[in-house]
Amino acid sequence: MTSAPPSPALIARLVCPVTKGPVHYDATRNCIISPQAQLAFPVRDGIPVMLPEQATPLEAD
C-alpha cells in the first residue's frame, strides 16, 4: 500500500529538525530527505514524520 505524497506547499515549509536546513521529498522512497543530516524521515498517510528518532540514516551511494 502506497502512502499519498505530502503536498508541495507543506514540503516547502519544512526544515530538518536536526540541522534546521532544507529538505526535499523523495517520491521513490516516499520520505523527506535532509541532505545535511543525511537522514530520511518517513511519510505516513501523506504526513511527514519529522521526529529525529523516527528518521533512518541515508545509505552512501
From TrEMBL:
SUPFAM superfamilies: Trm112p-like (SSF158997). Pfam families: Trm112p. It comes from the Bacteria. Coiled coil: none annotated. Belongs to the UPF0434 family. HAMAP family: UPF0434 (MF_01187). This is UPF0434 protein NQF89_07970.
